[in-house]
Amino acid sequence: MKPLQSLAEQAKRILAANAMGAWTKPAPRLYPHQWNWDSAFIALGLAHYNLERAKTEIRSLLRGQWRNGMIPHIIYNPDRLGYFPDPHVWQISRSPTAPRDVLTSGITQPPMITIAAREIVRREPSAGFAREIYPALLSYHRWFHRERDPHGDGLVSIIHPWESGMDNSPRWLEILQTIQLAARPAYKREDDVLVPASERPTDSDYDHFIFLMNLARDLNYDQREIVEHSPFVVQDVLLNSILYCADDSLRELAVMVGEPSQEIEGWMQSTRRAFQKKLWDDGDGMYYDFDIRGASLIKENTIAAFMPLYAGLADDARARRLVENHLLNPAEYAPDSSTRFRVPTASKTNAYFDPRNYWRGPIWMNANWFILHGLKRYGYSGLASQIREDTLALVERKGFHEYFDPRTGEGYGTDMFSWSAALVIDLVQNAA
Ligand code: 9WN
Known about the structure:
- The chain is mainly alpha-helical.
- It is 47% helix and 5% strand.
- It has helices at 3-18, 36-46, 51-62, 87-90, 112-122, 128-147, 173-178, 191-194, 203-218, 223-229, 237-257, 262-278, 307-311, 316-327, 365-377, 381-398, 418-429; strands at residues 34-35, 74-75, 234-235, 280-281, 286-287, 289-291, 296-298, 403-404, 411-412.
- The strands form four sheets. The chain has a three-stranded antiparallel β-sheet with strand order 3-6-7, covered by helices on one side. Strands 1-2 form a two-stranded antiparallel ribbon. The protein has a two-stranded antiparallel ribbon with strand order 4-5.
- The two termini are 21 Å apart.
- The structure holds (2R)-2-(alpha-D-glucopyranosyloxy)-3-hydroxypropanoic acid.
């Protein structure tokens, strides 16, 4: 068997080992529940060899959908608590729209589910699965555009760093530091027992995570109240790029099932306009998140800036500046004598750059996957295939870790990480 095929076979074994029946946990011990965007990446991998199982992964994620349309970021496994925060902390029954029979968190994550669903549907001979899931997906997208963009600005907001999927990114620090905590919230973490504390968010990060979580809970998950009162309301470049792609996938599904698509096209048009006007900094040649409370751009140079390439939201000139001045710049993201591997999740020039800590610099498989798709879209196919090869080589050398040190290529966080496995399968199958 060719080495890449055997890597894909190992990846399949990891997904099988993490499978919990109808859904897959992100990792054996650190993440024992079902996570929203993890399951979508997992479904993308499964779709290559077990379409039925990929569909089940999507269906099981829809189990947790709230009546207002939100798909939560975690659906808990009631038989295996022991992850903090657990359902008692979220208390979702405070919301009249939360499910009664499924335990979930009270916030969401980037809607990769629709992008994964479209990949599955494209492989299906009939529109049956599309017809089955379309209403639930439409209701999720309506929730984003209605509840998280109450003024019709064209960009939705996240109300917790966990909603970005990049929990402790340097992008959130300035806002978090402005939040004065009257007292440290009381809680007991489980994550830093399973993985060295130096590779996880700090206690101070967690204090703020819990503060924001309690705030949403105390407002009974009333989205308008949260968006109005929370100190953390951010138009995130990453989530808005994924939502734009997901809207495009939803539009494709609408056409396939014979439903009207004007509403979706309307969202896409406003996002395109707002993205260019509001999130681009022409001086730096970068896309940045917008802090609604502070009414300003969050000028942190991180990998999120390249997400508009994945979404096709940048015009050619901006795409060129992003790639040539930043991605290929050895002082920022390209390899140099200090970092031999790519792509670090924060620029080496970022004051918070830390090559071993979570989203502050390590290489993540999904981030590389987004980047290489973005590069292909803008015609940088040589660079895209190099990143694909480098990414596969990292896993081949060190295993299916959660993230990797860009200086040494060493793997950190949890091992047997499901989305690393799923995206390896996708990368092996789809030669760049
Ligand atoms: C909090 C499961 C999740 C991913 C996130 C990643 C991490 C959780 C945590 O793990 O977040 O949601 O405990 O740190 O940041 O992207 O979905 O893999």
